[in-house]
Amino acid sequence: MMRFSVLDSWRGISALFVALFHLNAYGHFYSLPLVRNSYLFVDFFFVLSGFVISHTYLSRLNARGDLLPFMIRRFGRVWPLHVAMLAVFIAFPLSEWVVCYTTHVCGTAWPFQQKDVRTALSNIFLVHAMGVDDELSWNWPSWSISVEFYAYILFAVACIALRSMLVPFALVIVTISAAIIVLLSPTYMEATYDLGYFRCLFGFFLGYVVLRLYRANNLKVGRLATPLELVALLGAGTFLSLVGTSKGAIFAPLVFGCCVYVFAHEAGWISRILQRRPFLKLGRWSYSVYMVHAFILIVLLRVVRGVEKLFDIPIRLDMGYAAKLYYVHDRFLMDIVAILYLLVVIAVASLTYRMVEDPGRRYFNKLAKTIDAKVE
């Protein structure tokens, strides 16, 4: 089956933008409007996921017996790395407490609260962004994994139960989900643990519609391929730079849907660049990039606090933001910090991909094949 390698590369680039968005290093990168609005790249993940999952499984979800193998494969794709990172997030403060308790060089207060047990359980069962919790917890970017897993379930059930009505059903889901975000979300497209499921459904089922359009009208773009890719890229970049957190951000999945449609053709010179090995590797590691960067930020914060305390040097500046910004002497120096941070994220992601993500995916795929064989 065809693999959309260019879209994979875009997934990797988008994951880096999300990682950069969460870094509070007050350099020139930080101030770029595109970076400040990169929270919307999560919606690109949703649209792309709907497109790719539909492409891969649409013809394979025909009867109730197809549902369990599908869910096992999707569970194996997202859960092993998710639960591994959850374990890291639990072990890190616990290890800090052990060191403090045994050495008495720092505070010895127990690091966990009663709610931490509840949120850990909701994370384990992937329901932490399904209205169960009232805040983001532990590995906070994983909220999107929670809602996407249950979007998989709705999609699979719809494929089996509503095959002839799947396009109208998808359009209804897209419309209702967008309306809920606009009318009920106090933060609009920044919805996460509260109304994040509808944000995901909006993008995911739009991705399915884009796939149907792609299959129905696969353009022979020829010489127009590169201009179309440039228009899509510049249009998306301009939109993201201008929209901020306003109600207009509701159009982000539509903008990303157009980009997915154009780059799925893989016909222009931008696509040829994105098919080169470094971008393909980045695409392969994209899920790991997304899942590990929050922990690296926590480690960075510990280092910054330690340097501030040891050398009595103020590094974090209170500029009116919820989180203080890192700043030392020069904004170009902060740009170098940002680049080094992204390189560390990529390096760690390459390890978690090889050690956790890929082995977990292979194990659950093998389990799904066994169940497939039994059903047959």
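That was protein one. Protein two is written in the same sequence-then-structure order:
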Amino acid sequence: MDYYCSSKFTDLQVHVQGKLLYNCCNALPERIDLDWLESNPGKLFHTNTMIDDRKLMLDNKSCESCHFGCYRYEEKGLSSKRLEIRNHKHIDDPMAPLKNLSISLATDCNLTCMYCDPEFSSSWYRDIEKNGEHKLDGITIKNDNWSKLWSKMKQNLRSDETRFFNLLVNEIAMADHIEELSFLGGEPLLHNGLEKIVDSLDNKKITIVSGLGVSDSRLINFLKKFRDRKITFVVSGESTGKFFELLRFGISWKEFQDRIKVIEDHGFEIELTSAMSNISTLDFINFFETFQDRYFIRTNSLTQRPFLMPHVLDDDSKEVFMRHADLYPNVRQIQELKKSIEMTPSGTDRSNLGRYLKEFSARRSIDLEFLPKSFRDWVGIDR
């Protein structure tokens, strides 16, 4: 097996609220010692752990952080983020300069997207606190100790005055080779520190990844303030109508479309990012046909929730998708999804999917009658 991935050398995700580094975004996180960082300015993007992992990769050996995020899925014949983004450029310097930095400011989020969890959404934390854990076969979705800590922290205590936030701003200022900064969440537009850090990035390409779960007034105020800056909004979505509202609970399909138009009307560039699950597979082509002429659509596969992966789908629904996919032989996103659903799902994933859908929809009073009957029967929703 070839363990190399150039993203390990060029990309990094920082979780400000948890003081965590993910190298790359799918890897196990490393917690930052702020005393160490203050004593070692300019080293945030080249910690000892990062350097050791890169050396292992150059020796074509597995490192624990990447086994968690990619290798363990590839060993089962499944897709992974590494395989989807792999490029042929080979970097052999463990101290290579960082190119792409993603910053997750906080877990504040008004949505409980079906594939998310308390690590990245405060709404998910509140749901688990109120309704209890999702206990499936081999998987438990719960509030662990550090997400409990975060939920109790007030926004002003996690604002631009926090120690790590200010250290991070300084680290970015010293990192001349960074080409692009992406802001993630939770929902980045809800964080009070976003404007300050954007203000400090005069010569960097800026991307904001948003589910648009914000008020119209807050969105418009941000757009007006930065209307002269080159900012790309990468908006999350992968389905339409009731499918969308199930997958991204907390925002309506109409609100989503209206807010995209507001961003476009203010002159900002828009891309779409689609998390490919079995539920989104049922409606992704409708989503693609709605937006293909207006925006670039990037796709990524789900791995953290095996029972939501695209291949965990009944044969009739797969056949319907295949027929529609054949109409788009040259569309990479659709053909990749077509290939990913060819695998046979395990009985455990099928059972977990049914249990999860029942619990998720019951907690939110969602009627699942709009899902295809063959799919509902297959996972036992109606029983």
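The radius of gyration is 21 Å. Keep this in mind for the problem set.
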